[in-house]
């Protein structure tokens, strides 16, 4: 149980406070309601580049990191397709420093040309390190546009291509800041060894006079229902073939989301899960296989990815996956198996409560979804899912016409076959 | 009017207080350390074994990592599937871990389920059967993973680096080749299991909500009839040998980035200078505000990340500097790293910078003590080196006593770019390599 109190400043900034005095640390987490889905198709990767720029100095404070390190704090951030999330952990006695720093960069950045220049390079290197210079690193750059044809989830947070990052201008940066970085689109959570009244007073002090800004109205194109199976084959310098299967599924707040998530647990969570047992251990058809739900706010993907064992073709491997999916579509999940995945949800939830940072991030995300208390009520939603609902989800999701299949083939093997 | 240019007042970071464990010893001699936190619903129980090696073999870490992975893949009474089902059903996590010096099995569970799970762990520690079929599956899958790993420049650089700084004939420096997997036999693993997974080679660390009942259960199950041959205490440490300091360059024709790794063997935790060396390392490359990060990422944009670390092992310590950079700036990065190391040795850091690193390290220590499990982890780290929690008071004192002069002196004593092993896997572009001294 994560208890919290909430208040909203006049400028629209929502603030949640969770006290946990088992630690001497405090955490300040700020979620901005902007992600890669809010980018224009001609300027992808921008939300993430912008995240880097948020550390390049603000209007009154030239060096964010140094000021934080001086008081014993650490920080980082991540960008997803849905959100951009910044967090600081520091000794709670220096909480005010975190609020000073965060409020100044919410007020305005310094918009330093040097920072833009350098971070364009840093992000380009990140693009290479994670996506281009890694075996299978570009699989998602191919899978997303296959599965999504209209919705901006069709590009990855890093962007469609390096050139979009390389061509970002200071004007773009300023416009993006104005549109997305204001109190109305932010949720701040302060957790740890802190006191509600003190947080409230300090928040008012540092964030109170920031202008509300204009409200951003998100209007994203809705992904139309997929009507036929999509297939793509790609060849790369990798030692083994890999199979990626993506299916559309309910959005985060839609009916059926929790049943879909449990479905992925039944198939793939832990070494007792079905795909691992049947396809890796018993069938020896795969050397590894995983199934998971993206957890996106809009139209979700249910993904199955694996590497077939030596001598097993991608076609055979795919057939074996479909056969397992047919089983879960046609037969109700036994009660004990369903209970097993629910038990894991429950215990994982207890583990997540050990960390003030995890709690702060989760509170912010649930608040964005509409109700911070979701952090406490979500487990019961999982527990109330029935075997029939899991089956319904399986039947709705695992249809060929709902599938996008990427066959990622080893060039070495192609050479052997051709030669 | 609020003055936003002025930082709020800084408050000193208070002293850290580490939780001391309650030490017990079970009837069979098994040492037990208990970290109590009754408000938790969770408990973590760790069985930690020091790695041993089979007679007549050069230290082969591949056997230990295989043993660790196969521990829970079957016992004389339960199959791999039954074990997995039971652990998952109770929402628990049973995690075998392998590192250079120790192999461990950790059980994370809600308190109310420990009773059903402890007999299962006992079965694993005393009756593991390491079925041939499970071994075959493990080897097949790991050979596949290995083939993927060796496509990664970073992985290749790391292998080469370990070979060079420790030498190839010991647990730290010996890295696997594909054919090494085929040489593993079930008989070897069973022999290793019988000599290593025994109470005289085990330490039990229990943290979280540790009730009296749980301790009694643990004693009944693991403290009385669990026996095994005593470990030969005359086991020698590994024979270590640092190799050449010439740049080792492995070219990858199509690389977009080069993986760079440099470093050397150095002092370990038991040496009195270790905390101070940690300090110098932090200032050089150990955090986001470090010199390497500021220069090579934040000023030049050569990389997404660069960092350095000083780590301790049971029998030695080592320092490493790691990055992946654009191929066109590979040589320039090496030059900058050399410059930064030499600067530490010749020019005094400012008081301001030294103070910043002090505060950062104090905050970082405080932040690393989040839950009872982190207190247990701190204890575990020093236990391997035969030290006590007093180490951390000494560590904090040493950090607080650092000065620009000490940083310079330590850098002169322990950092020598020329003597470091240097590995590059990727590409040094033509234009750049004109000035390259040694490429082999």
UniProtKB/TrEMBL annotation, chain A:
Superkingdom of this protein's organism: Bacteria
GO BP terms in the entry: proteolysis
Residue span(s) of domain Peptidase M16 C-terminal: 169-344
Keywords from the UniProt entry: Hydrolase, Metalloprotease, Protease, Zinc
Domain Peptidase M16 N-terminal stretches: 14-129
GO MF term list: metal ion binding; metallopeptidase activity
Keyword Zinc: yes
Pfam families listed in its UniProt record: Peptidase_M16, Peptidase_M16_C
Family: Belongs to the peptidase M16 family.
PANTHER family in UniProt: NARDILYSIN, PROTEIN YHJJ
Protein name as catalogued: Putative Zn-dependent peptidase
Taxonomic source organism: Sphingobacterium siyangense
From TrEMBL, chain B:
PANTHER family (UniProt xref): METALLOPROTEASE, PROCESSING PROTEASE
One Pfam family in the UniProt entry: Peptidase_M16_C
Peptidase M16 C-terminal domain: residues covered: 184-359
SUPFAM superfamilies found in the cross-reference section: LuxS/MPP-like metallohydrolase
GO function term, MF aspect, one: metal ion binding
Native source species: Sphingobacterium siyangense
Stored InterPro entries: Metalloenz_LuxS/M16, MPP/UQCRC_Complex, Peptidase_M16_C
Protein name from the UniProt record: Putative Zn-dependent peptidase
């Amino acid at each position: 149980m994560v208890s919290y109190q909430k208040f909203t400043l006049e400028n629209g900034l929502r603030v949640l406070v969770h006290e946990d005095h088992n630690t001497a640390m405090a955490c300040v987490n700020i979620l901005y309601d902007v992600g890669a889905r809010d980018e224009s198709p001609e300027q992808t990767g921008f939300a993430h580049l912008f995240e880097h720029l948020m550390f390049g100095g603000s209007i009154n404070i030239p060096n964010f990191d140094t000021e934080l390190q001086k008081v014993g704090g650490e920080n980082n951030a991540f960008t997803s397709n849905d959100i951009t999330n910044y967090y600081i952990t520091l000794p709670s006695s220096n909480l005010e420093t975190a609020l000073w720093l965060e409020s100044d960069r919410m007020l305005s950045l310094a918009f330093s040309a040097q920072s833009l220049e350098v971070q364009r390079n840093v992000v380009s290197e990140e693009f290479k390190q994670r996506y281009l210079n890694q075996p299978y690193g570009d699989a998602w750059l191919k899978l997303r546009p296959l599965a999504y044809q209209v919705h901006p989830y069709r590009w990855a947070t890093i962007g469609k291509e390096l050139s979009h990052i390389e061509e970002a201008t200071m004007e773009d940066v300023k416009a993006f800041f104005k549109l997305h970085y204001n109190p109305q689109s932010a949720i701040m959570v302060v957790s740890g060894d802190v006191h509600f009244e003190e947080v409230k007073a300090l928040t008012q002090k540092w964030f109170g006079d920031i202008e509300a800004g204009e409200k951003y109205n998100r209007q994203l194109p809705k992904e139309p229902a997929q009507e036929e199976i999509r297939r793509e084959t790609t060849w790369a310098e990798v030692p083994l073939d890999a199979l990626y299967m993506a299916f559309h599924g309910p959005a985060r707040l839609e009916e059926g989301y929790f049943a879909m998530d449990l479905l992925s647990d039944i198939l793939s969570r832990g070494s007792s899960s079905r795909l691992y047992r049947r396809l890796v251990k018993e069938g020896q058809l795969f050397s590894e296989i995983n199934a998971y739900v993206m957890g996106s706010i809009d139209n979700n993907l249910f993904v199955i990815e694996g590497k077939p064992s030596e001598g097993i073709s991608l076609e055979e491997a795919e057939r074996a996956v479909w056969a397992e999916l047919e089983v879960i579509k046609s037969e109700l999940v036994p009660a004990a198996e369903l209970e097993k995945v629910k038990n894991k949800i429950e215990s994982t939830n207890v583990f997540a409560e050990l960390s003030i940072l995890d709690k702060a991030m989760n509170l912010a995300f649930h608040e964005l979804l509409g109700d911070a208390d979701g952090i406490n009520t979500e487990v019961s939603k999982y527990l109330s899912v029935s075997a029939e609902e899991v089956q319904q989800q399986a039947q709705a999701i695992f249809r060929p016409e709902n599938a996008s299949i990427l066959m990622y083939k080893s060039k070495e093997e192609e050479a052997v076959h051709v030669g | 009017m609020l003055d936003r240019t002025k930082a709020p007042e800084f408050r000193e970071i208070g002293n850290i207080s580490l939780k001391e464990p309650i030490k017990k010893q079970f009837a069979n001699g098994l040492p037990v350390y208990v970290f109590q936190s009754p408000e938790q619903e969770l408990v973590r129980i760790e069985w930690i074994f020091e790695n041993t090696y089979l007679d007549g073999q050069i230290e082969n870490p591949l056997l230990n990592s295989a043993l660790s992975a196969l521990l829970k893949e079957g016992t004389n009474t339960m199959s791999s599937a039954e074990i997995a089902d039971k652990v998952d059903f109770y929402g628990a996590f049973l995690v075998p871990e392998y590192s250079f010096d120790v192999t461990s099995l950790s059980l994370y569970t809600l308190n109310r389920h420990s009773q059903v799970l402890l007999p299962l762990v006992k079965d694993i520690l005393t009756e593991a059967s390491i079925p041939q079929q499970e071994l075959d599956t493990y080897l097949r899958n790991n050979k596949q993973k290995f083939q993927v790993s060796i496509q990664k420049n970073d992985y290749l650089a790391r292998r080469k680096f370990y070979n060079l700084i420790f030498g190839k004939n010991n647990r730290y420096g010996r890295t696997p080749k594909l054919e090494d997997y085929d040489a593993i036999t079930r008989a070897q693993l069973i022999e290793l299991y019988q000599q290593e997974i025994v109470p005289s080679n085990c330490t039990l660390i229990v943290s979280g909500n540790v009730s009296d009942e749980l301790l009694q259960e643990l004693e009944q199950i693991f403290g009385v009839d669990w026996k095994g041959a005593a470990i030969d205490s005359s086991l020698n440490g590994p024979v270590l040998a640092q190799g050449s300091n010439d740049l080792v360059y492995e070219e990858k024709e199509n690389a977009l980035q080069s993986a760079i790794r440099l470093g050397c063997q150095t002092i370990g935790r038991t040496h009195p200078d270790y905390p101070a060396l940690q300090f110098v390392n932090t200032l050089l490359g150990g955090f986001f505000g470090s010199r390497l990060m500021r220069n090579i990422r934040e000023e030049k944009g050569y990389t997404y990340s660069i960092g350095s670390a000083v780590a301790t092992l049971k029998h030695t310590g080592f320092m490493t500097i790691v990055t992946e950079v654009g191929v066109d700036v590979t040589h320039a990065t090496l030059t900058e790293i050399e410059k930064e190391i030499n600067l530490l040795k010749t020019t005094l850091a400012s008081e301001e910078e030294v103070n910043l690193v002090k505060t950062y390290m104090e905050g970082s220590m405080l932040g690393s003590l989040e839950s009872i499990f982190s207190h247990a982890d701190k204890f575990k780290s020093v236990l391997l080196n035969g030290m006590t929690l007093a180490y951390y008071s000494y560590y904090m004192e040493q950090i607080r006593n650092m000065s620009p002069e000490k940083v310079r002196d330590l850098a002169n004593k322990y950092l020598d770019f020329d003597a470091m092993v240097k590995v590059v896997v990727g590409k040094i572009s033509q234009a750049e390599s004109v000035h390259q001294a040694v490429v082999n």
